[in-house]
Each structure stands twice: as C-alpha cells, then as structure tokens.
Amino acid sequence: MAPLIESTRSFGIIGGLGPLASADVFFKLMKAMAAHGNIEQADVVFEQHPFHGSGSTSAATTERKLYVFDMIRDFERRGVGAVVLPCFLSHTFLDELKSNTTLPIVDLMDALRSHVRRAHPTASRIGVLTSDYTRGSGLFERYFPAPAFDVIYPRMPQGRDAVTEAVYGAGGIKQGALTGKPLQLLAEAAQDLVAQGADLILPGLTEVALVAHAIGTLPVPIVDANQVYAQCVADGRREMSAKPFKIGVVGGVGPAATVDFMQKIVRNTPAERDQDHIKVHVEQNPQIPDRTENLVGKGPDPTIALYATCKKLEEGGADLIAIPCNTAHAYVERIQSSLSIPIVNMLTVTVESIRARFPDLKQVGLLATSGTIGSGVYRRALEDKGLEQLLPTPAMQERVMNAIYGREGVKAGYTEGQCQDDIRAGLDDLVRQGADVVILGCTELPLLLPFPQLEHGGGKIVALVDPTDTLARRCVAYAGMATE
To answer: Which domain of life is it from (predicted)?
Structure first.
C-alpha cells in the first residue's frame, strides 16, 4: 500500500498521450473540485504537447517514457506539487518514473483499486478492457492479485486485439471517433467479459473510460476510471506513488573521505541485488573553503558554500543530508534552521553510539583537527552524555595536524610513512593519558587507522571509533525505517 500523503492544491496534468481522454480527466477534476467547494483554491496546470512516438503508439516506447519524464521535470521547475498522469500505459513504467523524480505521482491504479474495494466489495472476477501491451505487462494483476481477484480479458479474435483496434486503429477513438465501429468493438469485448462471468468491468485505457457510458446496457457495472481518478485527486487525501528514500551527501570535504563514506553506505546496506541499495545524491564540492583554516582564524568562512551545497541536495529530492566531515559540523547549527530536511549530526550519533557500547566509560580520547577541537563541538557532544574529552598535548597535536595536512599527510594522498608515524604518536599520547576509546575525529583518519581496535603496549586493547562508519550506519537505518 502506497503511503497516504496530504493533498496539495497544486497539480500538473500530463496531456498529449491521449488528448481527448486527458481533457476528460481535466474536466471531471474541475467538476469534482467544484463539488468540494475548493475550485477557486485549486492550482491546476494542464500541459499538452503533440506526441509523435515512433513504432507502436500502444506500447511503452522510449519516446513515450522520455515525453512523460520531461513533462514531470518541467512541472518540478514550475513548483507543481503533484503529477496527474491519466494514461494506463504510462503506469506500466510508473516505477521508472517515481525512481527518478522528486514529485509524487497520483497513482491511477491505486485509485481504481481503492474504488473497487469501497464501491464493489464483493467483486472478485474483474474484467478489463485494455490494450494488448498493457494486458501483457501484467499491470492489473499487480494491483488485483490472485487469489483475492481473478483478472480476465476479452478472448482475442483473429488479428489485432479488439480493444486495441477500437482505440488505436484507423478511425479509432484516438482519432476522434466516439461512435460507430469503435463502440461496436468495445461492446462486443464487454459482452465477452460478461459471458466469462465478470463481476465488474474496468477500463484499462482512458479512452475506453471516455466512452464507457455509451457502450450500452450491461448486466454488470462498468467503471468510469477517469471519474474515479479525478475524484481521487480532488478528495484531498489520496494514495501517492512513494518515491525512493534518498540520502544527500555533501562531498569534497575532503574528496577521499567522501569516497570512503560512500563505500561504508554500500557495505552497511543489507542488499541481495543492485536495486536493494539506497539512492544517494553526492554534491561533490571541493571548493568549499577549508573549515579548519577558518576556525583557527586564517581562512574564509565556508558557511555559504556549505549551505548552498545542502540546498542543492534538498532541491534534488534528498530526504536527509550527511556531511562526512567532522570539522564542518561546527557550522551545522548555523544552517540547519534554513533547511527543510535534517542534517544527520555525525558527532551526536557517534557519541550516542559510544555511550551505548561503553555504558561505564568516563573519558574518550579525540584525534581531530585543531579547528574541530577549537570549535568545541565534540566536547559539548561528549559532555551531554557525561563523558570527558581527552586531547593530545600541544606538541602531539602538531603531529596529528601534520598527519592530516602535512606535505606527506593523508589529505595529500599518503597513508604510509611519516603520516603513520605522526598519527601513532598522537594515539600513543592519548593512551598514556588513560584513553580506552579514541574517536577518529577527522574523516581522513580512518584511512590511516582502518581498524575497529588496536592492541597497544602491554596488551591493552584500545577501541577506535570511526564517525563516518557510524554516520553511514545511521543513514542506512533511517532509510530502512522510511521504507517499512
């Protein structure tokens, strides 16, 4: 079941795929809104352009898919709140659309299923008048699954399917013929469904719904799917196709740490196939001014650059933002209130994880840049959980900075040699002060110390906490909760 989402009064209707039928949905939507008394508050965009697809006009061709996608992107740019897609054929590739757009699409098939359950609760044998392509796609079987339902179709005559011929054939409904042979073909197909024991007949083409009232008297109901869809949109609460959860990542701070963080998201995601992984939008911006230089008073303020990057992620449909940079979290409080999606605070979730793992712990060592230390962000997070921060001595802190920023430091691409000597010296200093747990408080440090724990002199085991791994695990957990 797709989630229920509060209605927006801003809709974009995609026309052009079936001009008469989409206009019928638009007309019925306006009537439904007028009946609700909210037509003056409705902001409805009806967009129709000529669609000239190559090959079969009754198939989900590439041209059709790109036409619909471009229309949705245009609605996004214009600030439309939700998409109305009055085309059964386009709903056969609805998953492809909703995986690549931030706009909710009102699900025509969900609307039809809800109507059947509410208005025809005893109907189980569902007759469908649709095209040969939609029939072959199994669209109706997905929404009306066995054994609760038995979906049936007209028995096909020789040659082209009667319903497809009535709509797409020469002189068919798509060409404006609303009487004569097209209606005769549809009436014969409907009578065949009745003969097969259908309890109810559903149009599987919006053009069929357009002329459903003129098919003739039948012993079973034939649903006006266009009216059902329009009413669903107008009702104020309706089922939407849910877009996949997306993690937004502020990348480039620094670049190697971004790649490392991405690997940790993949590694921590329970997946059996590619499609089980989480959508991730990385905005790689290595031109964000250096956070440490700014915090120690030697560089430009990165606030606007960080905020601009976060806004791009927000506008790109991210559900949350991850910043795999410890020092950047000194700026999170400045920008969070201006964003509509949360930044997952890496420092806070790291300290929460430490407290949960080591409930009796009193002190925690911190290896970090001088900017992160000077900002006090870790100290405050630790104190909130009753923990004391241990820091390297000033001389050892210089070696930690050299391991990160030095000519042969990790930011310059080195992971062996002098940078290893320097970071081990800083770690040794913290252990001598009594640290049993040490936070690797710069996102490049796990590249130098890629271990969950380290045996120190005398057999002492020191736990090394990687905040980027903790952040990745928390983001994956949020994604999992959102899809339950």
So the answer is: Bacteria
Please tell me which residue in 232, 310, 419, 442 is annotated as part of the active site.
442
The reported pLDDT for the residue numbered 55 is 40
Angstrom distance (rounded) from CA 124 to CA 200? 8
Q: Do 218 and 367 belong to one domain?
A: no
Interstrand relation of 43-47 and 246-251 (parallel, antiparallel or unpaired): unpaired
d(CA 396, CA 391): 9
Helix boundaries (H) for 54-147 = 62-77, 88-91, 94-98, 108-119, 132-137, 139-143
In which domain, by residue range, is 91 found?
4-241
Q: pLDDT over 70 for what percent of the chain?
A: 89
Q: Under 8 Å CB-to-CB from 161, ≥6 apart: which residues? A: 131, 132, 135, 154
- The side-by-side arrangement of strands in the sheet containing 82-84 is 4-6, 237-241, 105-106, 82-84, 10-14, 43-47
Reply yes or no on whether 442 is catalytic: yes
Same domain, 120 and 211: yes
What is the token pair recorded at 173?
């409904």
Task: For the chain, give the mean pLDDT.
Answer: 85
pLDDT digits (tens, 9 = 90+) for 371-385: 889 989 899 999 999
Residue 361 phi, psi (nearest 5)? -65, 145
Q: Which of 87, 310, 325, 475 is catalytic?
A: 325
On whether both 297 and 413 belong to a single domain, the answer is no
Of the three residues 206, 241, 276, the one that is the final residue of a domain is 241
The per-residue pLDDT for range 28-58, each reduced to its tens digit, is 888 888 886 766 666 888 888 877 664 445 6
- The CATH number covering residue 263 comes to 3.40.50.1860
Task: Of 283, 292, 263, give the one whose Cα is nearest residue 471.
Answer: 263
Looking at per-residue pLDDT, the higher value among 299 and 450 belongs to 450
pLDDT in tens, 187-219: 888 888 999 999 999 998 888 877 878 787 889
Strands 150-152 and 237-241: unpaired
As a whole number of Å, the CA-based R_g of the chain is 30
HSE-up of 327 (CA within 13 Å, CB side)?
Answer: 30
pLDDT for position 59: 72
pLDDT (average), residues 12-18: 83
Q: Return the closest-CA partner of residue 210 out of 35, 64, 22.
A: 22
Sign of the alpha-carbon torsion through 379, 382, 386, 389 = negative
Could you confirm whether 87 is annotated as catalytic?
A: no
For residue 248, give every residue at least 6 positions away whose Cβ sits within 8 Å of its Cβ, in sequence order, or none: 280, 281, 283, 310, 313, 314, 316, 318, 319, 320, 321, 322, 341
Name the nearest CA neighbour of 167 among 191, 186, 180: 186
Residues comprising the chain, all counted: 484
Whether 209 contacts 27, CB under 8 Å? no
